[in-house]
Amino acid sequence: MNESINFTVGFTEGIGWHWPIAVYLLLAGISGGALILALAIRFYKKQTENTAVYKSSALISCSTIMLGMVFLVADLEKPFVFWKILINYNFSSVMSIGVAAISVYIPLTCVIVIYAFEKEIKSLFGFLSPIIDLLKIVRSPLEGVTVFFAVIICAYTGFLISILVRFPMLNTAILPALFVVSGLSVGVASLSLVSHKLFKEDMHSGDMKILHKVEWPIMFVEVMFLSMLYVGLLVGGASGHVAIEGFHSGVWANVFWFGVVGIGFILPLVLNFALGKKMSNSLAVFYTSGLSSLVGVFCLRLFIVYAGQIFSV
Amino acid sequence: MGNKNDRRTFLKGIGFGSVLLSTMQYSLSANEENQKVDKSPHYGMVFDQNKCVGCTDCENACAEINLVPKGQKRLFVQDKTDQNHTDEKRYVRVSCQQCEEAPCVQACPTNASHRDSITNIVTMNADDCIGCKYCIVACPYDVRFINEETKAAENCNFCLNSNFKEGKKPACVEACKYTALVFGDLNDETSYINKLLRVKDSVRMKPGFGTKPSLRYIPIVKLGV
Ligand code: SF4
Ligand code: SF4
Question: What atom of ligand 1 comes closest to residue B122's alpha carbon?
Fold first, then answer.
């Protein structure tokens, strides 16, 4: 850049946020994505019983968001004063808004767990029955609110890093959208895996078929958003050119092309469509394509966090 | 008699008038004072590249007075000399630009990174900082860091907690033997910094970020004589 005067060093030497943040972004995506999908299926099919998919979503969303919190707190320089974030609010801060949303979202996921495992909880802790029955009165509206917050959780993780003006790859409007869609994609994968493994759901049951069907449009939109991100940087002038290097050089470019594109997109596509019906219906393919989509989205989060920060202006 | 009376009223009049006058005067000066309080300060700094010789005295003074841990810096002088013209030295001050619209203040979830209510200087409250580093990635100039000892995020705050409190100029300004650094209130029309900015061409660093930095740089410009 031909400014008359400039400095080109900084005090963080490139990276302020490290991999625990990428893990958190992944876990928040899984949590929100799984819940959105399971509740959408429930509303769409007007289910009243607790299906395997519903139970899985309850377990997944609650455990991943809590684990995510562990990573988030562990990444603080002063983890033991993390509670200060709960008493000092700054509503111009996306992080504060996110914390507020999470403080509503986590209890909601706990309530979903109570709904999903009503029988089990009642038989184990009989004294809780009246409370559970009370909660059940508001079940449908509460589930609606939960979907709303699940979307917020996925989206805010995108907004959280899209406001960072120093990093052209992050500082784009497409990022929150990309995070919601990739959250849905890992939501599908984790729901199918857990439903089958833990709750013995048949691989070809009705719910699983829906999950399997929506998987491809979700992937398509994800690819589209990623291309938009790429093209946006390509035509984005000097700062875009700095950031686009992230796709082409360094170790994170490999993570992108091998991890996100190779394992995340191409592998599941090949396994499911190129190898014939017998193969695509097998258990091995079921697990591999589920896991590969998880790995793919994790690589995407890592790539965004690292390449995004390294190629700064 | 009549004269006497007249004289008395006259005297009374003067007395009354002076009371009136003095109250008027008083209210005037009160107004002036109020205005001064109302016009809150906007502190800024000028770095003159023509004068800086790169001795790093400012760096050292800053670290000493603000108890910055060894190896860390609130202020750094970067050598930007063109390697093809090593005889033309160029140095640039790297430090918090004291943005008027500061992303670090906006981003901080705990208000640890905040604007001081009296001086309007962007500063930090180390006790409230949880070290989430959001301010560090939010700062367009990459001039914040986690203090290794306090574990809190930190930036150049014009020595707000050290020299400024004692009514002194920032340590770097005091330390510079070549008067390459000038500090003052940009809202005070009569301040030296304003006089300087009126006669010198100065620029803001990376103004494209739109954060309105309060640091001004006077770059070396060759007039081609
Ligand atoms: S330069 Fe960075 S640390 Fe300083 S006020 Fe601006 S955003 Fe904050
Ligand atoms: S690191 Fe400290 S000062 Fe910076 S945003 Fe987090 S809490 Fe605020």
Answer: 5
Nearest CA in chain B to A8: B78
CA angle, corner A63, sides to A61 and A68, nearest 5? Answer: 95
Strand pairing category for B145-146 and B153-154: antiparallel
Q: How far is CA A114 from CA A118, A128, A136, A188, B62, in A?
A: 5, 10, 9, 22, 57
Closest atom, ligand 1, to C-alpha of B142: 2
Nearest CA in chain A to B90: A5
Give the position of tokens 């005889």: B87
Instruction: State ipTM.
Output: 0.90
CB contact residues (below 8 A), chain A span 149-188, against chain B: 161, 163-167
B8 touches chain A (CB under 8 A): no
**A299: amino acid identity, one letter:** C
Ligand 1 touching residue B124 (CB < 6 A)? no
- pLDDT above 50 (res A6): yes
> What is A19-310's CATH number?
1.20.1630.10
Indicate yes or no: CB of B109 within 8 angstroms of CB of A167. Answer: no
pTM of the model: 0.87
Could you tell me the CA-to-CA distances from B91 to A108, B121, B199, B202 in Å, in that order?
56, 25, 22, 15
Distance (Å) from the C-alpha of residue A168 to the closest C-alpha of chain B? 11
- The helix/strand/coil state of B10 is helix
Position A203, amino acid: M
A83: CB partners within 8 A, 6+ apart: none
Give the Cα separation of A210 and B23 in Å (integer): 84
> Average pLDDT of chain A?
93
Closest C-alpha to B77, from B138, B156, B154, B133: B156
Place of tokens 């965004």: A304
**Which chain B residue lies closest to A94 (C-alpha atoms)?**
B107
The answer as to CATH 3.30.70.20 being correct for domain B4-218 is yes
Rounded to the nearest angstrom, the distance between the alpha carbon of B130 and the centre of ligand 2 is: 6
Q: Residue B149: what residue type?
A: E
Which run of H or E residues covers position A309? Answer: helix A283-310
Q: What is the pLDDT of residues B106-140, one digit of tens each?
A: 999 999 999 999 999 999 999 999 999 999 999 99
Give the amino acid at A2.
N
| Whole-number Å distance between alpha carbons of A39 and B168 | 63
Instruction: List Cα–Cα distances, B140 to A16, A86, A96, A282, in angstroms.
Output: 12, 26, 20, 51
From CA A274, how far away is CA A244, in angstroms rounded?
Answer: 32
Cβ of B144 closer than 6 Å to ligand 1, yes or no, is: yes
CB B107 to CB A94 under 8 A?
Answer: yes
The secondary element (H helix, E strand) that includes residue A245 is: helix A237-248
Reading the block at residue B86, the tokens are 């090593």
Determine contact: A12 vs chain B, CB below 8 A: yes
Question: What is the model's pLDDT at position A7?
Answer: 87
User: In chain B, what residues touch A78 (CB-CB under 8 Å)?
Assistant: 129-131, 151-152
DSSP character for B89? -
Query: Cβ distance A20 to A75 under 8 Å?
Result: yes
